[in-house]
Amino acid sequence: MIEGHGDDLYLYANVRMNFSSNICQHADHSALKQHLASRLDLIANYPEPEAWSLERLIAERHGVDPRSVIVTNGATEAIYLVAQAFAMHHRCIEPSFSEYADAIRMYRSSKKSGRALWLCNPNNPTGEALEPDRVQQLARENSLLVVDQSYEHYTAVPMLTPRQAVGAGNIVQLHSFTKTYAVPGLRIGYIVAAPRLTRQLRRYLRPWSVGVLAVEAGRFLVEHAQPVSVDLAEAQRLRHLLQSTGAVTVRETHTNFMLCHVESLTAARLKDYLVREHGMLIRDASNFRGLTPHHFRVAAQTPPENEALFSALRQYLSSTPSL
Fold first, then answer.
1. 249 Ramachandran zone, left/alpha/beta (phi>0; psi -120 to 50)
2. Claim: this prediction has a pTM higher than 0.85
């Protein structure tokens, strides 16, 4: 299970600038809050056993059959559902989100048939994004392709559409309201796949897994809200600023977040200094499989915040002995 994730503000009392979470930090939720405040009476009754009303709205939005959509308690529930439903030889493209490997380990099966490949696109933590042709090629090379598109609105690279995923027949596509609308506390995600795959997935779906206010919020967001907007140009400016320190190397990225490496000290030490002395929170990325204690991840924020991070980082790196 997740441990050492980004956005761990609950561990600190003085965070002023949060670079640790890839989620947009400045979204306006006022209309959603007002709507939910007027619907609090819903908590007196059970939600739909499965979020059918929201599934129909999502299907209509994407132009697919409602049978091809399953709403889940965040994209994380979808990950564990897929790992449980398909007894295959699962493997992940790494480094990537650790929950894929955790889910695969949890549902190991001795009766394996076929190969399943897990892909995060755009990828967390690297920010790399693959175009639809490459994704479809990977689908042809495997029995099942699981594509987590949680960050699909955080890039300018074209993404595989839900209709293409359904048409492929062997692609399970994961989506996240958490990232699309910057509402991580609501826990709303969904799966899009061909009906033959969703039939198998629904065999393992828990009843009432999505709460009534989450369903109501999801319906409001689909009908009235726009996906969050990230400033990709500002992200590239931050990347170049970090590179200019001379001590930090930064992977090329197609998103608002980027994977960094600093050889002269550990990410844990850097994180501790930034949050303690400057109220800035970064993501220690050492717990991603394949990375090292010297890797960290940041997500670009406003220009003044990015300048402040650069200044604090440059000052610390110039005055700190190597470890």
1. beta
2. yes
